């Protein structure tokens, strides 16, 4: 792939962890968005020593592209093992792009209850927002050419890395 | 032709467009439905049990034959997907005025229907409807004559997988009125597709279809012998209302030989589960102590039925 090399995901995660540390407490509920966001949230949950159990969301039932592309083939079960009502939440995703996934995630969360607040943590912000959504915690800003996607990968030892791929539809991130 | 002529429930990309039967459905599609249903079980345990997938869609429950459980669970499933649901009991409506099935359907399609859930006493009726509706409309078979009841088959597969995990190690017995049962056929097709190595059918000869062995099942006339070491007992309802001639001496005699009692169940594996599609004839095909006992998963079946129907509807409507 031409252009600048991609940053090291492990270093970005380290930076993200330190940005979040002073801003989270024992009541904070961390929720990863499948799949990359769940990997990150698990690592963050560990590193930050949070007491509230980790949550995960698969936003397939709330996506706005269902009408055009149908239901995703591999829907995982959303799991929020704590009371959402009145709790400060942090959503975790790997790559922040159009903001549509985050919109779907927020809609789903409100079907569990009314959180005190929702903040967003993303390992990478690649710009290109189509909705008024911003992340409060970002590992790094990244310039990516249109038509290219960035994804998080995890090897068998659990090490995270970023990779580029050719994107067929710009809406999906 | 935009549907696959060899399997008219699939579109040209091999995706499910209608659900008419489990026969001939590839294992990937069965597994996709079961996996999706698992996620919907999570939704149905939340405070707000709704998702917005079918918002703005009109789902018509077309029941040409009475049903409470199936119709209600389809209705709940559609509502939890945010669809608008219209229930029609046709036997007390146009059919009595002489309107044909296709005319009824054409009229409802003109009211901008997106999906038809069809229950009909005639085998093949949902096929006829699927063949004549516009390409953007989806049809789900909710039971046609003796032919098929695919969502019941799927929810039973979901229930088995929930308790037993892996089909490849299971011995499953289907017990009772196989001849009149559309559920039994759906079970046998689905179990075979999902890799169940041993399917047994237990029934008196008069309640078995001819050449039932060609479906790849082992036939037992003696229930005690057939239940030995099975992991799953799938009871069927004795179809009183479908019984045209005297195939049985009496309900009491049926109970004696083919009713599931505690002592007969004791011959199955100790952790065997008991399923029944409902409604149950207590004291005919199943004893109350078994129906309400620790091995019965009959009520979870009903709950899982909602998740399965949500999965089928949301997969169809998206394809």
Describe the structure.
The complex is a heterodimer of chains A (173) and B (319). Chain A has four helices and seven strands; from the N terminus they run H-E-H-E-H-E-H-E-E-E-E. Chain A has 173 residues and is α/β, with parallel strands linked by helices. Chain A has a five-stranded parallel beta sheet with strand order 2-1-3-4-5, sandwiched between helices. Chain A has a single domain, classed as Rossmann fold (3-Layer(aba) Sandwich). The model of chain A has no long low-confidence stretch (mean pLDDT 93). Chain B is an alpha/beta fold. Chain B has two domains: 138 residues, Rossmann fold, CATH 3.40.50.1370; 149 residues, 3-Layer(aba) Sandwich (Rossmann fold), CATH 3.40.50. Chain B contains eleven helices and nine strands. In chain B, strand 3, helix 4 and strand 4 form a beta-alpha-beta unit. In chain B, the strands form two sheets. Chain B has a five-stranded parallel beta sheet with strand order 7-6-5-8-9. Chain B is 36% helix and 14% strand. Chain B starts with 26 loop residues before the first helix and ends with a helix. The chains are: A alpha/beta (173), B alpha/beta (319). The interface between A and B is medium-sized, with 21 and 21 residues.
Q: Main traits of this protein?
A:
heterodimer; A: 173 residues; alpha/beta; Rossmann fold; 5-stranded parallel β-sheet; two-stranded antiparallel ribbon; 4 helices; 23% helix; B: 319 residues; 2 domains; 11 helices; 9 strands; 14% strand
């Amino acid at each position: 792939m031409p252009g600048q090399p991609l940053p090291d995901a492990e270093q970005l995660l380290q930076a993200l962890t330190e940005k979040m540390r002073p801003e989270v407490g024992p009541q904070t509920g961390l929720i990863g968005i499948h799949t990359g966001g769940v990997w990150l949230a698990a690592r963050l949950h560990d590193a930050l020593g949070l007491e509230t159990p980790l949550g995960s969301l698969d936003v397939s039932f709330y996506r706005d592209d269902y009408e055009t592309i149908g239901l995703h083939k591999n829907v995982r079960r959303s799991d929020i093992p704590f009371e959402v009502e009145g709790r400060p939440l942090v959503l975790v995703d790997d790559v922040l792009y159009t903001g549509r996934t985050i919109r779907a995630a927020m809609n789903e969360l409100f079907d569990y209850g009314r959180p005190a607040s929702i903040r967003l943590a993303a390992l990478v912000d690649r710009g290109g927002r189509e909705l008024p959504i911003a992340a409060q915690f970002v590992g790094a800003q990244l310039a990516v050419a249109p038509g290219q996607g960035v994804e998080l990968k995890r090897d068998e030892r659990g090490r995270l890395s970023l990779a580029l791929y050719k994107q067929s539809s710009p809406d999906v991130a | 032709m935009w549907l696959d002529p060899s399997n008219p429930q699939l579109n040209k990309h091999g995706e499910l467009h209608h659900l008419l039967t489990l026969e001939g459905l590839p294992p990937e599609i069965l597994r996709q439905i079961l996996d999706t249903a698992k996620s919907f079980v999570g939704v149905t345990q939340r405070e707000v049990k709704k998702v917005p997938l079918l918002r703005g869609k009109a789902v018509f429950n077309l029941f040409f034959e009475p049903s409470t459980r199936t119709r209600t669970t389809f209705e709940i499933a559609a509502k939890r997907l945010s669809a608008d649901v219209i229930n029609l009991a046709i036997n007390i409506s146009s059919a009595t005025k002489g309107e044909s099935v296709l005319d009824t359907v054409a009229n409802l399609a003109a009211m901008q229907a997106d999906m038809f859930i069809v229950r009909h006493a005639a085998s093949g009726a949902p096929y006829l409807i699927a063949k004549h509706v516009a390409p953007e409309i989806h049809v789900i078979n909710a039971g046609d004559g003796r032919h098929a009841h695919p969502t019941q088959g799927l929810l039973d597969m979901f229930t088995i997988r929930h308790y037993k995990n892996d089909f490849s190690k299971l011995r499953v017995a289907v017990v009772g009125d196989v001849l009149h049962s559309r559920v039994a056929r759906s079970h046998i097709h689905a179990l075979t597709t999902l890799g169940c190595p041993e399917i047994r059918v237990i029934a008196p000869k008069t309640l078995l279809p001819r050449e039932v062995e060609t479906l790849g099942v082992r036939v037992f006339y003696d229930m005690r012998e057939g239940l030995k070491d099975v992991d799953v007992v799938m009871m069927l309802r004795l179809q009183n209302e479908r019984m045209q001639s005297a195939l049985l001496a009496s309900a009491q005699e049926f109970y004696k030989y083919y009713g599931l009692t505690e002592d007969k169940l004791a011959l199955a594996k100790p952790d065997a589960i008991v399923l029944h599609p409902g409604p149950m004839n207590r004291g005919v095909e199943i004893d109350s102590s078994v129906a309400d006992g620790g091995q019965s998963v009959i009520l979870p079946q009903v709950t899982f039925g909602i998740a399965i129907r949500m999965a089928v509807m949301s997969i169809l409507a998206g394809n």
